[in-house]
Write a structure and sequence with these properties.
This protein has 110 residues and is mainly alpha-helical. It has 3 helices and no strands.
Length: 110
């Protein structure tokens, strides 16, 4: 009887160790994903502020911003980015020169 109990105790201890390792790994993964989300949010914020300060956003810059926005939404985030992104879409698409009045582009609503 002693050997049977010892066998099951060892097996249970190994399973507990595996479970603890799995939980630890899952926690590290979740923390890493949260870090990536925060960095993505910060990068998108920086890009929006840069474009607003610049006063215009080229179509290529808008496409990059769109990709960031779709990732932002894919993470389930919603908040101030929608309003900030609308401000970028209201910007000109080219650098304003003294010769041309520039063009404003209306982008579809999200």
């Amino acid at each position: 009887m002693f050997f049977i109990k010892r066998y099951f105790d060892r097996r249970d201890a190994k399973e507990n160790d595996k479970n603890m390792e799995s939980e630890k790994m899952l926690k590290e993964i979740k923390n890493s994903l949260e870090t990536i989300r925060l960095l993505a949010y910060a990068r998108m914020s920086e890009e929006i502020e840069r474009l607003l300060t610049q006063g215009y956003a080229t179509p290529a810059e808008r496409r990059i911003l769109d990709e960031m926005y779709y990732n932002y939404k894919a993470h389930g985030w919603n908040g101030d980015m929608d309003a900030r992104l609308e401000k970028v879409y209201e910007l000109r698409t080219d650098h304003a020169s003294e010769d041309s009045p520039g063009r404003a582009v209306t982008w579809p609503k999200r």
